Amino acid sequence: MKIVIVGAGFTGTQLAKKLIAEGNEVQIIENNQEKVDQFQTQLDCSIIYADGNNLSTLQQAGIADADALVAVTDNDEINMITCSLVDAIYPDVIKIARVRNYGYYVNQQENSKIQKETFAKTNRPLYGIDFMINPDVAAAEAIVTAVEHGVSDVTPLGDGEYELTTVKIEPGSRIDGIMLKNIRNLTDKKMIVVFVEDKNGTTLPKGDTILRAGTSIGVLSHKDNLQELLSLCGSETKSIKKVLLLGIGKIGSIVADSIIQRKNNSFLAKLFGRKNKKNSAQRFVIVDNDKDSCDIARDRFPDSEVFCADITDEDFIEEEGLDKFNLAIFATHNHELNLMMAAYFEALGVKNTIALIANSTFCSIAEKMGVDVTVPIRDTVVDSIISHLRGKSVTEVHTISENHEILECDLPSSSPVVGKTLKEIAKPGDFLLLLQKKAGAAHYELPSGDSELNVGDHLVLIIRSGDKKILENFSGKD
Do residues 139 and 251 lie in contact, with contact meaning Cβ atoms separated by under 8 Å? Predict the structure, then answer.
């Protein structure tokens, strides 16, 4: 892909590095001479010293034949105007804007839904922006994903009908020591082993892969088959009854809202259990040291317990029994506090901790401190942007490991796999087709070797991150 980036701050340069490493053509526009001089020799791309919201500058950068524009300057309005300008002249270019103002983001999201038919008729997005990225929302979504995947080890796929569950094979379990292709002899439930994870990393398995105790496997199956899967692996369902959330600012509020909504309406209900009068052991505790924020939280989240307190107070922790909780999420804007308290609660015995941090530089430190999951707020914006740059037919990307991702796409007419069966294009170890929803169909299916791929099919597959050849095979060349 050819991508024009406006803004050479942290996000712009980190994005450029990743895109260049994947073999994309990148052009940067930056109006700060010091930044231009700093990154001119560090990045394998040209940087134009100029304002990005100028049509002639954008044309000089090659916007006319670009696949995407990414506006990530420090000015929300400049980012929005730049996208609007490009949309007016080059509507086929994918336009992505980072917008920190939460009001702008909410307005775009709400009006895009309310006026969906109007925008569908004009085939134009609101503000001319195809994808608006709000850092707080991106960070909150990353935290909720960590709860779903990193803590609960479950990723919902196929409109929630199917689940990708990561489970560890226990010694002496029914699948310990057997060959992957022989699993079908142990159960009549349809399951696909998507990946195998051991000390050497994550790999896509083949039929002759031997499954051994101590190895973790990712298995895709219908949501009703979880107990059967756990039985095969000799494992048990994780249960999270008590959740602590530190920080009820913008990010914390979005996290709380998402967890409560998903707890009531999705598979998380199985993880947390629905709250009722008989189940008094369940607790969702919110802690913040700002009284006004706590008052708002009490009204907004009536089923939670809200404390205006100092989380570093040992007496408070002991009195409320917070050291006995299953999950602790630290989402304040004080990233150092998040990291230190996550490590402290790990030391107290809390089994699952998630900490919001500034950037990925602190991830290795956090790992050494025992923190389970870190969410680097700056990097989540970059990852969120990249998820929209996998191709115009790609609808969603789920990161599974450092080197693998799950891709969802609508098969375009330009795809070379159209009209072929899965066994004709299968490349074990390169990709796995997980789910297929035929054009016009209501439900997803687990594909077989005889499944034929046709234009408009919605596909879910796992690939190596940034594998351009596989991307082009399934999403077409842009």
Answer: yes
